[in-house]
Design goal:
The complex is a heterodimer of chains A (110) and B (113). Chain A contains no helices and eleven strands. In chain A, a hairpin with a 6-residue loop joins strand 4 and strand 5. The mean pLDDT of chain A is 94. Chain B is globular and about 35 Å long. The relative contact order of chain B is 0.33. Chain B contains no helices and eleven strands. In chain B, a hairpin with a 2-residue loop joins strand 5 and strand 6. Chain B is mainly β. Chain B starts with a strand and ends with a strand. The model of chain B has no long low-confidence stretch (mean pLDDT 94). The interface between A and B is medium-sized, with 23 and 28 residues.
Chain lengths: 110, 113
């Protein structure tokens, strides 16, 4: 079993919808949680970074962490076609090695 | 501030050859990490360098190696290339470690024929 599980999708939604992306993890040592967005043939781009349980909001994006359940989420409000990409959750413990989920492919249709 | 740069962006090699990839981190960042991304395995950590020393290492064979220079630029080398080494190789930089997060470059796409 992988340390970080993420539904690969694809997830297809209409423009303007609220998108929910999720990851579960098994390693209790993970302390820092990130969401990256990756467009085709590009490097991952950092969207959200958090290290405590609870919610963090940045524009249309909200990251949620529940350490007791080992579950993290990313919500995208008012989704746009330009949000179509692969979304990767990543996490790390005390060291600098990021452990990634497999990524969820999101398609937002106009 | 300029982002992470990687060269070359694309490479085609044949089995048995070796390859060297280069990464220049964001100015002021001293830690450089390398990752391999493939459709089957996703993003996997190769190694991390900090102040010219390898600080962490992932679960890859010894054919994969790296180094870091005094200006924080890093190179990774893959010797005796195999078909399975075809991947996007990503470099990420961060200031030092701990709570800092990592910023990725555009990657080098390596194709092994």
């Amino acid at each position: 079993q992988k340390e970080v599980e993420q539904d690969p999708g694809p997830l297809s939604v209409p423009e303007g919808a609220i998108v929910s992306l999720n990851c579960t993890y098994s390693n209790s040592a993970f302390q820092y949680f990130m969401w990256y967005r990756q467009y085709s043939r590009k490097g991952p781009e950092l969207l959200m970074y958090t290290y405590s349980s609870g919610n963090k909001e940045d524009g249309r994006f909200t990251a949620q962490v529940d350490k007791s359940s080992k579950y993290i989420s990313l919500f995208i409000r008012d989704s746009q076609p330009s949000d179509s990409a692969t979304y990767l959750c990543a996490m790390k413990g005390a060291g600098n090695m990021l452990t990634f989920g497999g990524g969820t492919r999101l398609m937002v249709k106009p | 501030k300029a982002g992470v740069t990687q060269t070359p962006r694309y490479l085609i090699k044949t089995r048995g050859q070796q390859v060297t990839l280069s990464c220049s981190p964001i100015s002021g960042h001293r830690s450089v990490s390398w990752y391999q991304q493939t459709p089957g395995q996703g993003l996997q950590f190769l190694f991390e360098y900090f102040s010219e020393t390898q600080r962490n290492k992932g679960n890859f064979p010894g054919r994969f190696s790296g180094r870091q220079f005094s200006n924080s630029r890093s190179e990774m080398n893959v010797s005796t290339l195999e078909l399975g080494d075809s991947a996007l190789y990503l470099c990420a930089s961060q200031t030092s470690g701990g709570s800092d997060t990592q910023y990725f470059g555009p990657g080098t796409r390596l194709t092994v024929l």
